[in-house]
């Protein structure tokens, strides 16, 4: 079994030496378990958190253990009555070719239509994140202005398109011309602003009316530019702050970029709420998937993937994800 282990806890940005690639025997499923062969591995920003030994909503990966991650692939052996060899599934575990998993959070999915990798992106955890955060927290209404950071990424693409379907004006924020062009021309956002430029001025030009919903994927300077432009009764969906993930422990307080002045939260009656998709999201996976598949069939929902070939290339691809090297949902195709 080809596996990628966490060898060392990174200080700052991860480097290739923090990972170790090993070959081990293929595991056997125990009673009630299933052996899954991965075809695709999802690489996601939350994995940076699992590499650090700090108190969080989930336990860190132990040193020497397989890196955490979700895969999609097929069942090769089963000791669970609900699954048989050949079933195509979402829900294998880890940066590895074979994994033994229980039936919890193992979903049978189509093999090809839509493509299997979509079950890790638009129809997987990132899409579910977008859908839950909008349903539960953002609640955008027709005519409102929604701003989405990391707009060309896995979560951001879906957030913006779902907000468009609800009749909102949607402004994305992304890094660079190519990503911004894609967000407007391919995904149909009303505008997309480059965070390498003067974001304050671009926001004033694109949304002079102010912002009703801000979908926060990035934090740092982007947050500081957006926050003062929220309107009365605005909602801030706190999904992630990737710009701050490589900071040293404790930097949230000390070394982080200056945060916004949250004073206006009261005067403007703002709602700022964080959430973790795994808390309640998977229980609603069926409803979410049916709704989004409907949008895909109707031609209302598109997506872009960034596919990297070969499990040994996962560490480099993940390191790139934390600095904007990916263009679209990042997945690894496993031979
Ligand atoms: P993406 O596919 O959007 O990839 C990450 C993107 O973040 C990069 O492409 C880059 O886009 C942007 N980025 C990276 N570093 C920086 C930086 N220093 N400053 C500004 N932008 C940066 O990732 P996901 O869609 O998977 O995740 C987006 C966010 O959602 C993350 O914060 C993640 O942690 C969070 N998340 C939260 C969940 C929850 O349950 N709360 C679940 C899933 C994701 P660009 O080049 O455009 O800047």
Automatic annotation (TrEMBL):
<dbReference type="InterPro" id="IPR013149">
    <property type="entry name" value="ADH-like_C"/>
</dbReference>
<dbReference type="Pfam" id="PF16884">
    <property type="entry name" value="ADH_N_2"/>
</dbReference>
<dbReference type="InterPro" id="IPR045010">
    <property type="entry name" value="MDR_fam"/>
</dbReference>
<dbReference type="Pfam" id="PF00107">
    <property type="entry name" value="ADH_zinc_N"/>
</dbReference>
<dbReference type="InterPro" id="IPR020843">
    <property type="entry name" value="ER"/>
</dbReference>
<dbReference type="InterPro" id="IPR036291">
    <property type="entry name" value="NAD(P)-bd_dom_sf"/>
</dbReference>
<dbReference type="InterPro" id="IPR041694">
    <property type="entry name" value="ADH_N_2"/>
</dbReference>
<protein>
    <submittedName>
        <fullName>NADP-dependent oxidoreductase</fullName>
    </submittedName>
</protein>
<dbReference type="InterPro" id="IPR011032">
    <property type="entry name" value="GroES-like_sf"/>
</dbReference>
<feature type="domain" description="Enoyl reductase (ER)">
    <location>
        <begin position="14"/>
        <end position="332"/>
    </location>
</feature>
<keyword id="KW-0560">Oxidoreductase</keyword>
